[in-house]
Amino acid sequence: MFDACHFGATFAQFKARYDELWPDGWRLKFLSTYNSGGPRITAVWRQTNEHERWVHAWEYADLRARYDVLWQQGWRLKVFDRFTE
Predict the structure, then answer these.
(1) Mean pLDDT of the chain
(2) Residue 74 to residues 26, 28, 35, 55, 78: CA-CA distances in angstroms?
(3) Is residue 44 a contact partner of residue 5, using CB atoms and an 8 Å limit?
(4) Which residue in 1, 20, 54, 72 has a CA-CA distance of 20 to 30 Å to 29?
(5) What is the pTM of this model?
């Protein structure tokens, strides 16, 4: 099985690719953010039957509250990256 990759994308480019791949069962496998003339994202997807919930730009308190709810439902954090400008 091959992975789909996107290197050095802006958020808009990443989100467009994410939305394009989602309907065909592609889910995030790896994510890395960095600053190179502005925020950039490198992402790798793989095809799988697993469910996925994705969030962006949340404050810690919001993320923690949602995490606590999802943990009780059996969800586990699989990919996490923190970006600071």
Answers:
(1) 89
(2) 21, 18, 34, 17, 12
(3) yes
(4) 72
(5) 0.79
DSSP string, the chain: -PPEEEEEE-HHHHHHHHHHHGGGTEEEEEEEEEESSSEEEEEEEEE-S-------S--HHHHHHHHHHHHHTT-----------
For residues 82, 26, 62, 42, the Cα torsion angle rounded to the nearest 10 degrees is 20
Residue-wise over 27-52: b if at least 16 C-beta within 10 A, else e?
bbbebeeeeeeeebbbbbbbeeeeee
Tens of pLDDT, residue by residue over 33-53, are: 999 888 899 999 999 988 888
